[in-house]
Amino acid sequence: MCDTMVALGTATKDRNVIFAKNSDRQPNEPLLTIRIPRRRYPEGSKVKCTYITIDQAPETYEVLLMKPSWMWGAEMGCNEYGLNIGNEAVFTRVKQGPPSLLGMDMVRLALERCRNSEEALHFIIELLEKYGQGGNCGYEKKFVYHNSFLIADRSSAWVLETAGEFWAAEKVKDVRAISNRLSIGRDFDLAHPDLVKYAVDKGWCPSAEDFNFAECYSNKLFTTFARSKERQTACSLRLERDKGRITVETMLEILRSHHPQFDEGRRFQKNSVASVCMHGGGLVGDHTTGSYVASLGEVIDTYWITAASTPCIAVFKPYWLTDNEVVFSEEQEAEALAFWKLREELHRLVLHNRVDVDAYLRQAKDLEREYLRRTTALDLGNADPNQLNELMRWAWQQEKELVEKTVAQSRSNAGKIKGNFYFRRYWQKQTEKLLGS
Q: Which residues are catalytic?
């Protein structure tokens, strides 16, 4: 489960394209933040994706990825050209295929090989046609699905939605949000040549004149249980309301938002699959394991990363693709895992009511406001990379000290999980698996 959004320059206050995503996955699955440099490969090289091996490109571009720890692919990320992609699980009437490429594999492959949104759109379609999609996407329990993608660069964006080998694509105008559902209807810019015929032949719609991609191809039962329409609607309404004045802060607020029926004071006492900031603990639904916002400028792109779960308590930290060692290399996955896991321990201590949440949040919000203030004060078009590196190192260090201090102070506190029996049992078992206590 996830939510992904984009606002083009026509809809933002500073005319930058702003891309944002929450990655909602099984709560014990670490989401690692990894940076991989540009690389060249000998002719005939292969690359092992999550399940299958395919031809490697002669050269891959530099990428910043937020990837599930056990997968080759990534939930979301960017490359050196400002291309950003996020994927969504969608539930369709088309039969699942055998293990092949996961949607996350396609995200990473496109980021490594494409320079703009249209190039990435056609490349993912080619991957779909050549290799297909399929395989278990679950960490501790099996979970299979098809995929949709939001693909953005510094001037344009596309939505690509798939159902097995079939697909439809829509070019974004101003703003767009996608979630765990097919959302392209009668109007699309590109589509699989047999998209309509296949649905009519299957009896999913009476005639070509009545064709609606989402209506014809959706598995309505799974899509309804995912509560994705509510989340997508919440994102879309906010983007439409703020069109012309959307900022990074707008996206941060959306990624942290909860369903109106979800009592903010009890957000650590029950699950909420209908919230953009998804809280696990129910029979259905996942938990937000990482959050990301990209502000794509003409000269330099600014990224805001939690590298942590639960955005309503996490701190978004600024990042630039300068020569720095602030985030982890592919060879430092153990360190990236430890980074995520410490912040997840903080979340579990909050769940167990062992943290003074109000005091922690005051400090976290103060830090984030200062990061935003200092970043806004920079002349990014002419910024010295050393200046950016200094701000990054300071920001990430300040957040690290806050998390370490809060965890250390809270470990010895008494407390217990609140909520109904199932919620308490769910998180007790998850925490025992992850932390051993």
A: 2
